[in-house]
Amino acid sequence: MPSPVRAAGQLLRVGRLAADARSRARLLHLALRARLHGPPREPVPVRLCRHGRLVTLGLRDHHDIDLLDELWAGEGYPLPAGFTPRRVLDLGANIGLFAIDLALRFPEARILAVEPHPYTFRRLRAHAACFPGIAPVHAAVWEREGEVAFAALDQHPSARVDGEGRAGGIRVPAATLESLFARLGGAADLVKFDIEGAEGRVLRDPAVLRRAARWIGELHPHLPGCDPPLIAARFREAGFAVDLRPLAGSCRLLVARREDVSVAAPAAAQPCSSLSPSS
Questions:
Q1: Which of 85, 166, 230, 233 is the most buried (most CB within 10 A)?
Q2: What would the mean pLDDT of 32-41 be, rounded to a whole number?
Q3: Same domain, 129 and 215
Q4: Does 193 lie in the same domain as 235?
Q5: What is the rounded distance in angstroms from the CA atom of residue 85 to the CA atom of residue 106?
Q6: When comparing pLDDT for 33 and 255, which is higher?
Q7: Are 242 and 235 in contact (CB under 8 A)?
Q8: Closest by CA position to 247, among listed 277, 226, 272, 217
Q9: Who wins on pLDDT, 179 or 153?
């Protein structure tokens, strides 16, 4: 559990996303209840303001609050100025915060949002229903097609593929990078990944890596099979410039790009109160 000072700072940042006083109170209640007494049985609708739009999300526990803080209140996954992706793979989409953020900024983008956890995927699909550019996919990205063991039954963001299939897990659909790129016509402008240790098994083939112009995501060296220097070397072999940046704990942020993209920036957001809710 975070320190009181850290928790208060997080609530202050996330509270600024609330579209009204009622939603701000719900965020506070969720954060406190989830950490002290456990989450509510069903997600609670909260109205948030993002890029000049009103978005209603069903939030349930402190993991959701943490993701809001990281992806919407914080820097999240930084993209360069002027970069306008048209085809996006979101691997490990969770409840859809990154995908929704892109859909609001780039309405013409086609976003394949891939999430393996059955309950989390249902929430992702509900959130994506208001965004025609987001296509939810229930699957774990893996080195082969079919099914794969998944290690966690709850919806903790670190739930991950368990290649050894230990007892207590569940079976979920598996999709390869090649098959996911095929759904986007064979290539993508951007791949975001947060796949909890599967990076070492998935990010292997330089020919497949070259199907996207830019990659950004988390590497988890504390999990078996994830070696950040080795993965970075594979991207360099594929012709990418690579940055490895520190994240929380031992995690690293990998940013790989083949070339700078200079195109028209998205239109500036208008005040949230001037627009209709998106859901």
A1: 85
A2: 68
A3: yes
A4: yes
A5: 7
A6: 255
A7: yes
A8: 217
A9: 179
The pLDDT of residue 261: 41
Per the domain annotation, does 67 fall within a domain? yes
Same domain for 17 and 94, yes or no, is: no
Q: Which has the higher per-residue pLDDT, 219 or 2?
A: 219
Question: 160 and 141 in one domain?
Answer: yes
CB 232 within 8 A of CB 254: yes
DSSP for residue 73? I
All residues at 6 or more sequence positions from 193 whose CB lies less than 8 Å from its CB, including other chains: 89, 91, 92, 141, 199, 202, 203, 215, 216, 217, 218
Is residue 203 within 8 A of residue 143, CB to CB? The reply is no
Q: Can you give the pLDDT at residue 2?
A: 60
Locate all alpha helices (DSSP H) within the chain, ordered by sequence.
4-15, 21-36, 62-68, 97-105, 118-128, 177-183, 199-202, 206-209, 228-237
Task: Domain count for the chain, please give it.
Answer: 2
Q: 241-246 and 212-219: which strand pairing?
A: unpaired
Choose one of 30, 56, 74: the last residue of a domain: 74
Same domain, 5 and 113: no
Tens digits of residue pLDDT in 173-232: 999 999 999 999 999 999 999 998 899 999 999 999 999 999 999 999 988 888 999 999
3-state secondary structure of 246: strand
Domain membership of residue 8 (yes or no) is: yes
Backbone angles phi, psi at 147, to 5 degrees: -130, 160
Domain boundary among 74, 99, 126: 74
One domain for residues 125 and 101: yes
State the average pLDDT for the chain.
86
Which residues constitute the domain of residue 31?
1-74
Q: What is the mean pLDDT of residues 35-49?
A: 82
Q: Give yes or no: residues 41 and 143 share one domain.
A: no
pLDDT of residue 272: 56
